[in-house]
Structures are given as structure tokens and as C-alpha cells.
Design a protein that fits this description.
Elements lengths: L19 E2 L2 H14 L2 E6 L4 E11 L4 E5 L4 H9 L3 E7 L2 E7 L3 E5 L2 E7 L4 E4 L7 E2 L7 E5 L5 E9 L3 E7 L10 E9 L3 E17 L2 E11 L3 H19 L2
Helix pairs in contact: 1-3
């Protein structure tokens, strides 16, 4: 099989350090998101010469184990069990996720063949500039409250969102936004996820006329978004995608 486009492992190096997650809580949150989303996971082994595609069935932090579906090919499972290092690659809401394990042990889970590895101590969540953006609902638009220095709050209406940032509209007189301005403690109410508080940095500003009203369209990036919050944004994006695909 050709692993191209199925999740080729990244070579760990200094340039990827900003994308590494070391917090155990955040690592578990990303793994749980992979499990809930039933994301296909490519397991590379035999020094990267072989791989199989599986899914994460269970995340058990108390037992330090992750349980994956086994291959229907018994010989493939045997090769995986003999391998001394395994690299798992997947995509969670279009964000690449990668981690390593020293050994995969064959087990039986829910009366079916499976294998398990230890919960990784570090995980790569590779979010580059081309982070996937999805348009937010128009009928029930997502709102973001942006606090101002005078103690007032401006309500922005989102246009799209990604794990890297968002685009939104605000009334021109309400917010004199300039590129580079940062707004801390902005709050979004993500459906089924609850409030998310973050700092927004303005990266681009344009003005548009909507009837007799002048609106400012802001492209903003999230500043130092916590891993758990990034996972919540990913889950929200994934739900939007699944909802639209089902229509």
C-alpha cells in the first residue's frame, strides 16, 4: 500500500517544537477528540516501511493505554506486534496529529482483535497557516464579545472560524480596529462546548456597506490558544462539517 495522503509522519525537529503538546490534560483531550470523531489513524511501523489504517476505540488514562482496532489481516497484526516503534498519524478537523509508541500489544477488546499502546507523553498537533476555515451558520450566527478598554463590550458576528482564528463583522463606529491590535478576554459561546475565552489579534481589516450601515470585517488570529480550547474549536468545526454533509 502507498501511504501518500494517508498520513505521512513528520520528522521531529526544532521547527516543530511550537506544535508539540506536553500537557497530559491536553494530550488526553486531543486523543479523546480523535476517538469521538472516529478519525482514521495510520500506524507506521517496521521503520516506516509498512503501515495499517485503524481507529482509536478507547482512551484509558487510568491504565495508561490506548486501544485500537486490529487489521483484518492477522499477519499484518503479527508484524505490528513485533515492531519496536510505532508512529500514529491522523487528522482531527483537518489538523494533523502525530505521536509515537514503543510497542503495540495484541489484545481482545469487546470480543474482537485489537491492540494497545501506552498514552504518549508528547503529541504533535500540526497547525500551519493554511488551517482549515469553515463558514459559520447564518441563521443562528456565532457571536463573540470583545471587551474594550473603557469597560464596554462590542458584539461581533462570526463569518468563519478555524483552529487558528476567525473572521467577523462589527459595526464600524463601535470598534476602531487596527492591524496588530490585541483584544484579550474575548468570549465566544460555542454550541455544545460552552464559553471559550481567548485573546484576538487583528490581522486584516476591510469595510463593507450593508444597506445604510458601514461594517468592518476583521480577520483575527487566536493568540496562545490552549490545547484544550483548540480541541473544542476542532470539535465544533467537525460538527458543522458533519451537519452539512448529512443534508
Amino acid at each position: 500500500m502507498n501511504a501518500r495522503n494517508l498520513g505521512t509522519p513528520e520528522a521531529f525537529g526544532p521547527e516543530l517544537e511550537p506544535f508539540q503538546i506536553h500537557s497530559r490534560r491536553d494530550v488526553i483531550a486531543v486523543l479523546q477528540s480523535l476517538r469521538h470523531g472516529k478519525s482514521p489513524i495510520t500506524m507506521h511501523y517496521d521503520r516506516g516501511e509498512r503501515f495499517l489504517v485503524t481507529r482509536l476505540l478507547s482512551v484509558n488514562p487510568d491504565f495508561e493505554e490506548l486501544i485500537f482496532d486490529a487489521s483484518p489481516d492477522a499477519e499484518e497484526n503479527a508484524r505490528l506486534a513485533r515492531s519496536t516503534r510505532v508512529t500514529a498519524v491522523s487528522f482531527d478537523a483537518h489538523v494533523k496529529v502525530q505521536f509515537e509508541a514503543e510497542h503495540a500489544e495484541g489484545i481482545v477488546f469487546d470480543n474482537l482483535p485489537a491492540f494497545r499502546v501506552r498514552v504518549p507523553g508528547v503529541l504533535l498537533r500540526l497547525q500551519r497557516r493554511e488551517a482549515y476555515r469553515i463558514a459559520t451558520p447564518v441563521v443562528k450566527p456565532l457571536k463573540c464579545r470583545i471587551p474594550l478598554s473603557e469597560g464596554e463590550t462590542v458584539e461581533a458576528t462570526l463569518v468563519d472560524i478555524s483552529v487558528g482564528g476567525l473572521a467577523c463583522f462589527v459595526r464600524a463606529p463601535q470598534l476602531e480596529a487596527e492591524v496588530g491590535t490585541r483584544y484579550p478576554d474575548c468570549v465566544m459561546e460555542l454550541p455544545d462546548e460552552g464559553p471559550l475565552t481567548t485573546t484576538l489579534e487583528v490581522r486584516h481589516v476591510t469595510e463593507e456597506r450593508q444597506g445604510t450601515t458601514t461594517m468592518r470585517r476583521l480577520r483575527c488570529k487566536f493568540v496562545s490558544l490552549a490545547g484544550t480550547d483548540a480541541t473544542r474549536v476542532q470539535r465544533y468545526i467537525h460538527k458543522l462539517e458533519r451537519s452539512r454533509l448529512s443534508k
